[in-house]
Specification:
It is built from 11 helices and 37 strands. It starts with a helix and ends with a helix. The protein is globular, with a radius of gyration of 23 Å. The protein has an 8-stranded mixed beta sheet with strand order 30-31-33-32-34-35-36-37, with helices on both faces. Strands 25, 26, 27, 28 and 29 form a 5-stranded antiparallel beta sheet that branches. Strands 1-2-3-4 form a 4-stranded antiparallel beta sheet, with no helix packed on it. About 55% of the residues are buried.
């Protein structure tokens, strides 16, 4: 057994490579580590680049390096990594897409525009005093520049905000919505915009969510991922000449993809508690690999940078901390090339995938973390956010303040369940929670606890539960349904779906989807939302509950925590509310993360 707070403090020193970009010749990799761009050789040598704070790295097709520096500056370094050119755009750069013709598409967010919970649920910085907001006034825009020219040219998408985009031969393929808030992301469409003519053509409408639009070489086809929420889903292929849009068969839970040529695609995504990837030719999957581990990427989803048939990404397993790694597209044979976190490897704990049966016999799986394979300690269940998200095999699972690994070191048995609604099991499994939030998924979670008690892994007198975001909701909801948990911790959770439906920056997008259209403007809708809201079911709660929240969170606003605290207090439940200033949907300040870790571990009574 190790001191969990010492383990948590050690994990704060983990160096995570972001924005991994493989050079066109496959010989080196660019990335961002702790806000500084680096270039790594395949032998592991690592060279930091000067120039202050960096956010994104991209190689141009000719081997020059493109950087996003600070919030609104683009820079290009020559082949010798010397400064060559820079330009600025208005607002905050969110993505850069270079093309072979020497142009770059920039997706940039207006000051004051809303970020979703995957990006801390905060507004993009805006110094305005007073802050003024009008519908359609703070968008995510697309602009393009020719390298060497510092004049951005906006691609006008009338009344639309752009959530994701690709760029090829003067055309942008964009996921857009008419609602500029993150709620709009839940009602998207796929548009093709021609920068030369100004024409905007809608290719695809869907009730689901879209990400990773990709234009094929030659301009005759496009693909996009269609799924739930963050997004892991099926690949939709659009014929740009006929307008026909249809899914590529026998393929699901894709999170990233790209064209190798006009007939061939690579892909990657989730597979159970691991990842998969491979190659698609002429609409057929011709090679597929799976691996037990986690590929890092944008928004926490698996993504790759590809050159030829070689891929680069951030890769971690239960035994190995995250590092830059390379693999063949067909083999998925990940080989770590850096050694940023070697000193943390001894903190690894025993991790295994376990499976149990849901109420209807459907197999449900999750991860079990223990200091040793025979260790029997207090059981802590950590519910993941989403709900369409998952726990994947990782060295130190990051969600919920990265507490899974420290809790295991403290002697706890940690269950990370993937109930109905989770990614990694296909669209039918993910959609099984729609209209049944807090029902189908909570039942799956509780049956996982039953399984561990029945097999002697868990003591029924030493059970606790915690989670962040939707996992926070599920934790608060669980203790209204059962008294079996002795303690609970609710981090950035939802307590009242009625107030969420007007206060969250996801309101009107997330909630109609997951609550199957329940409308708070109708008596029936209000009744349905209240029926699944913890604050209206406080009377029977006996579980001591710690509530942790950031005061700037706009995805699950602070009022959610305050409502839960008042409801629990009025019902005589032992509770405590801890609010961290300057924080959004997840804690980022080191002192706050450390303080929250101490409070949660103590509250759960593991030490």
């Amino acid at each position: 057994m190790s001191d969990p707070l010492e383990v948590h403090a050690a994990l704060a020193g983990l160096r995570y490579p972001e924005s991994v970009a493989l050079h066109p010749d496959g010989g080196r990799v660019a990335c961002v580590i702790d806000g500084v761009a680096h270039v790594a050789g395949l032998d592991g040598t690592l060279t930091p680049l000067p120039g202050g704070e960096h956010a994104l790295t991209r190689w141009l097709p000719d081997g020059r390096l493109l950087l996003a520096s600070g919030s609104h500056t683009l820079r290009v370094l020559d082949a010798g990594l010397r400064p060559l050119w820079q330009a600025e755009v208005a607002g905050e750069i969110e993505d850069l897409v270079p093309d072979a013709d020497g142009t770059v598409l920039v997706r940039h967010a207006d000051p004051g525009s809303e970020r979703d919970g995957s990006h801390l649920g905060l507004r993009v910085h805006d110094p305005s005093d007073p802050f003024v907001r009008t519908p359609g006034g703070r968008l995510r825009r697309l602009s393009w520049l020719r390298i060497g020219d510092d004049r951005p040219r906006e691609i006008v998408l009338p009344g639309l905000t752009a959530w994701d985009a690709d760029w090829r031969d003067g055309r942008a393929l964009a996921v857009t919505s008419s609602d500029e808030t993150p709620a709009g992301y839940y009602r998207p469409r796929l548009d093709l915009a021609d920068a030369r003519t100004g024409e905007v053509r809608t290719l695809h409408h869907t009730p689901w969510q879209l990400s990773r639009p990709r234009l094929a070489p030659g301009g005759r086809a496009a693909v996009v991922v269609e799924g739930l929420s963050i997004v892991s889903g099926r690949v939709m292929h659009a014929d740009l000449e006929t307008g026909d849009v249809r899914p590529i068969p026998d393929l699901d839970d894709v999170t990233d993809l790209g064209w190798l040529d006009e007939r061939t695609l690579w892909f990657t995504g989730w597979s159970g508690t691991g990842v998969h990837g491979g190659v698609i030719e002429d609409g057929r999957v011709t090679s597929r690999w799976t691996a037990w581990g986690t590929l890092g990427g944008r928004g926490g989803q698996p993504s790759l940078s590809v050159a030829g048939r070689l891929a680069a990404a951030t890769w971690e397993t239960a035994e190995r901390p995250p590092e830059i790694a390379v693999a063949s597209l067909e083999g998925g044979d990940w080989r770590q090339i850096t050694a940023l976190n070697t000193d943390l490897a001894p903190l690894a704990v025993h991790q295994e995938e376990i499976t149990w049966s849901g109420h209807d016999g459907l197999p449900v799986s999750g991860l079990l973390l223990r200091a040793g394979p025979a260790r029997r300690g207090p059981l802590v269940v950590i519910a993941h956010g989403g709900p369409t998200w998952l726990w994947s095999s990782a060295f130190a699972p990051a969600e919920s303040n990265q507490l899974a690994l420290p809790l295991a070191h403290a002697g706890a048995t940690v269950l990370l369940p993937n109930p109905r609604g989770s990614s990694g099991r296909g669209q039918a499994y993910a959609r099984a929670v729609i209209g049944m939030v807090g029902d189908a998924d909570l039942t799956d979670l509780l049956r996982g606890v039953d399984h561990l008690v029945a097999t002697g892994v868990a003591d029924p007198e030493q059970l606790s539960i915690m989670g962040l975001s939707y996992g926070g909701y599920l934790s608060a909801w669980a203790v209204t349904r059962t008294g079996r948990f002795r303690a609970a911790a609710v981090l950035s959770g939802v307590s009242d779906w009625l107030s969420f439906a007007t206060a969250s920056n996801l309101a009107g997008g997330f909630d109609p989807l997951y609550h199957a259209g329940a409308d708070p403007a109708t008596p029936e809708g209000r009744e349905s939302l209240a029926a699944r809201s913890p604050v209206y079911h406080a009377a029977g709660v006996t579980t001591a509950t710690l509530i942790v929240h950031g005061d700037q969170d706009r995805t699950t606003p602070l009022g959610q925590a305050e409502q839960l605290y008042r409801a629990w207090s009025a019902a005589g439940v032992r509770t405590e509310l801890v609010v961290y200033p300057r924080e959004g949907h997840e804690l980022v300040e080191p002192a706050h993360r450390a303080d929250a870790a101490r409070r949660v571990i103590s509250w759960l009574g593991v030490t």
